[in-house]
Design brief:
Elements: H1 2-33, H2 36-71, H3 75-107, H4 123-149
Helix pairs in contact: 1-2, 1-4, 2-3, 3-4
């Protein structure tokens, strides 16, 4: 049972880290290269499938890491899985408290070609929060991988 859960937590935390890394490496530079109206349009399109999927992947991975922290036979594995769960919870917190509110503001723009006078480009702030959650996700994956090796 532990081996199966170990594979599952590696799959979930690997997908999380991989998606966030890919966004940081490829999607963000593309969004920054776009004119603002095009960026708003692209941002709306990009989130349609990620928004309902990623919370499920991240939270499931968090729960799996917590379960493995409880079930692990060795203290090192318990500590590593617990720390990975905390980091994945951090990914979720940054997403829900920082990136998602920005996403909602961008998606609320009805006409990207007629932005309000007080419009502030959210890309720099969104990128900072995204890079934080990417780092947390990569660290969680590393800890989960290390924990699986000491199961």
């Amino acid at each position: 049972m532990g081996a199966l859960l170990g594979v599952a937590v590696l799959l979930g935390s690997g997908v999380t880290a991989g998606v966030l890394f890919a966004v940081a490496l490829s999607v963000l530079p593309a969004l920054f290269a776009m004119e603002t109206a095009t960026y708003v349009y692209a941002h709306k399109l990009l989130g349609r499938n990620w928004d309902p999927t990623m919370p499920v992947v991240v939270l499931t991975s968090t729960v799996l890491a917590l379960v493995l922290a409880v079930l692990a036979d060795t203290a090192p594995a318990r500590v590593l899985f617990a720390l990975a769960a905390v980091l994945l919870l951090g990914v979720s917190a940054v997403s829900h408290l920082c990136n998602v509110p920005i996403n909602r503001r961008v998606k609320a723009v009805e006409d990207p070609t007629a932005l309000p006078a007080d419009w502030q480009d959210p890309r720099p702030v969104w990128r900072r929060w995204h890079l934080l959650r990417t780092a947390l996700a990569v660290l969680a994956l590393c800890l989960n991988a290390a924990a699986v090796t000491v199961l």
